[in-house]
Structures are given as C-alpha cells and as structure tokens.
Amino acid sequence: MLKIKNYINGELLKPRSKVWLDNFCPANGEVYGQTPNSSQEDVDNAYIAAQSAFPSWSQTPLEERCRTLLKIADLIENNIDTLAEAESIDNGKPITLAKSVDIPRAASNFRFFAHAITQFSSESHETVGQEAINYTLRRPIGVVGCISPWNLPLYLFTWKIAPALAAGNCVVAKPSEVTPVTAFLLSKICIEAGLPKGVLNIVHGLGNTTGQAIIEHPEIKAISFTGGTKTGAHIAKTAAPMFKKLSLELGGKNPNIIFADCDYSDMLNTTIRSSFTNQGQICLCGSRIFVEDSIYEKFKSDFIQKVKLLRVDHPSKDLTDIGAIVSKSHLEKVLKYINNAENEGGKILFGGQQICVEGFENGYYMEPTIIEVETNNCQINQEEVFGPVVTLMPFKTEDEVLQMANGVKYGLSATIWTNNLQRGIRLSNQIQAGIVWVNTWMLRDLRTPFGGVKASGIGREGGFEALRFFTEAKNVCIKY
Ligand code: NAD
Fold this sequence. Notes:
Low-confidence stretches: none
Strand order of the largest sheet: 15-18-19-14-13-21-22
Shape: globular
Bound molecules: nicotinamide-adenine-dinucleotide
Largest sheet: 7 strands, mixed
Mean pLDDT: 98
Strand content: 15-25%
C-alpha cells in the first residue's frame, strides 16, 4: 500500500504525529494508500527547515534559481505518464485529461515562473525639484504557506509553489488531503532536481489540523490559498490579526451567456467542455447557462443530444469523458443539490442520478446533469455545486442577462458567446468577474492576472501579479 511521506528539509519523513489518513480511489471506492495527518510539530519542523534555507535561497543568483526550477519542469515532463496515472487514480479524473492538461500545466508553471523572475523588474522615480531619486526593491517575503484543493491537484499546487520559489521565498506547502499523491511525487522530483534542502517543504494532512497549523504559524508571513469560500473566510479571519499577506482564490458560480448571433457549433462544443470537464469540478466551469430566447429550444435539444453521448466510465479508459467524482461525500453533496433543485421547481432535462460502472460498482460515478430553472434566485443557481451539473435558463435582453450574471455572491469568471463585438466588450466591462472569456473558455495565458471578485476571493495570481504577491516592495529614497 502506498504510504505517503512529508518532505521536510530535503528528506521524506513520516509524520511526528504518527497519525495516518486513508486515501481512497474514487474510481472503485477502495483504500489504496495512506497519507500523514501532520501535526503542529511537523509544520513547525517544516517552518524551521524553510527558515534556515531562506538566507541562502533568497541570495541565490537568479540564473541558478531559474536553472533549478527548469530542472523540476523537465523532470515533471519526463515523468508525465507516472504523474498522470497517479493523478487519475487519486482524483478520478480521466487519465487523458491528466495527461493533456494537468501534468503539462504543472511543468509549464515551473518553466513559466523560472523565466518570469529573470524578467521581473521594479520602478524608480525621480522626485523632480527635490533632488532625490527613489527606487523600489522587491524582496522575497521569507517563509510562505501554499495551500491547494483537490480538483486540479498538481496543477494548482505548482501554480503557487513555482512563483513563491522563483521570487526567492522558502515554502511550507500543503496539498489537499483528498489528493496528496502527486505532491508526494513532486517531493521526489525536487530531490532529484537538486533543490536545496528546506527550500520547499510539503506537509500532508487535514485542513483543520495541518492546514490550521500553517495559517496560525506566526512566522509564516503570507498565505496563498485556493479552495472553498468558507475556508477562505476562515483563513482571512485567522490571519488578519497577524497581518499576513493573503491571496485567496475561492469558489465560483460562473455564467455562460449565449446570444443567438454566436458561432453556434463552436459554442455548443465549448459549452460541453465548460460544463463537464473534470466532472464539472473546475472553479471556472460555466454552471449557469443563459441562452437568448430565440435559440433557446434549439440549444436545449442540441445540448441534451450531445450530453447524452458523453461517456461516464472508469478514468483509466481512453474513451472516458467523465470519470469519477472525487469522493463519496462530495458525490452525496452534489446529488443532494440536484434533489433540492427538483424540490424547488427545477426540471431535470437529463441525468441527475448516480451511475454504476460495471466492474467498479463501489466507484463514485454520476450522470452529467442538466436542470432547467425558472429563476436565477434558486439554490442551484446561487450556490456552488462543483460537479457535473448545469442549469439552463432563457433570457430576452442584454440588461436582463447582465442582472442575472451578476446576481450571485460570486465573481470568478464568465463566458459570453456573441459575434457582436460591441456587445461582447460592453458586457465584459459590466460583468462582475475577474476573468471574462468572449467566444472561448479556459483559454489561459500564464502572464495574465487570475482571480476573482466578491466571494470568489482577493488578490491575483499569474504573471507578475504572482511575483508581486510573493515579494515585499521597499522604497529607498536618496537625496543627492
Ligand atoms: P477546501 O476549502 O475544502 O480545501 C482547500 C484546501 O484548504 C485543502 O488543502 C484543505 O485541506 C485546506 N483547508 C481546509 N480547512 C483549512 C483550515 N482551517 N486551515 C487551512 N487550510 C485548510 O476546498 P476543496 O473542497 O479542496 O476545493 C474545492 C473548492 O476550491 C471549490 O470551492 C472551488 O471553487 C475552489 N477552487 C477555486 C479555484 C480558484 O482559482 N478560484 C480553483 C480551484 C478550486
């Protein structure tokens, strides 16, 4: 049985707590590994290692830092098959997706920030009339904490770690206890790449034990967190009295707005992806679909036809479109939302049920689900379900759809389908979201700012935004 270890001070260690958690495979419901539930003592040790490594790592010439991070990127790529298989077993996502998206992106995260740090610069200001010049130093913060969720395990873990390390910080990181395996494999890769000991420390465990010890640690000066809004609020409350720097990437309830003048087939194919990729467990999924009324009935029928063709099956099969939901408790939560939606007057147009996959009867599978709703003010349109569930609703005017798009507490992303450029720009300007896609979805350029507004979080990741987060600006003013 796979036994995961913490990565502290360059070594793979059992938890001091001696407490282990079972690791379930969602595709068959079986326990296949154990992961530490690390205690405060483990986190303290990780901190001490990081703190001792900081003076040297923060002074390492950029070229050398860059070379080490590129080595990690290369090793991720060289191990793509192993990592993709591990991610698929741990998370339930189709292996094809892990191989084409998750793992390549983890390598890109390291490669991107390895190069970005060599191009990062700060400002200088001449104070005219005062005979003074100001320049800004951008210094690494020290020891920072990175905490990530289960939906894109290695992808999001590295999206935080890579910029933190590139900027010269040392890191105490915790992946989700639900999907710890690829983070463990990353530890081995870091050892092989020759990352100096203590620069990155990975501690495994539950949010309310290991995670809590990280956010409460008085010397961990910044926390980069991706996860649920409720957890984000708890972290903010805990960290505020210690004045920690926070980046919080939280939940979403994203609108997918479809106008009659769009490129119909591109929209239809992309809407299948934006609804159900990764079993709908991506914070950017467009879970509220609003369709202009003149094409509503056509869209409804075409969409249902296409969704019927999606194959729900074991994640290891090449033809699987939808794998297993990440955990039993999450599956139950998603099914409960569907049940409530029906009770609230929602009409299930397709799906809604758990599925039994032959040979894997204890796996956590469910049908992709389409629910027609009459109002945006229902639970299924207001709360994040985070599963293969979308709602459909017609709209008549741009104003009406804008009201509905903005009529939720979240503000992560939005998609607009139209060939009317003015309308695309007009709506993009008015939608309350950190990311708006027009005529596409999840097209990512790593240089762009990534994050949400309202209950979807604070701060931005990506590009220089991430490097700004992971550094402190210091102004030096010299009178000459
Ligand atoms: P979660 O909030 O339950 O857990 C996220 C991480 O936080 C895990 O590692 C968990 O162990 C840890 N955690 C939990 N309690 C903690 C505590 N008290 N102190 C410190 N750490 C703690 O979220 P999840 O269920 O793993 O992930 C799903 C959520 O993540 C969804 O809401 C989704 O929208 C969100 N998400 C957001 C983005 C984004 O970029 N905005 C990306 C992916 C996922």
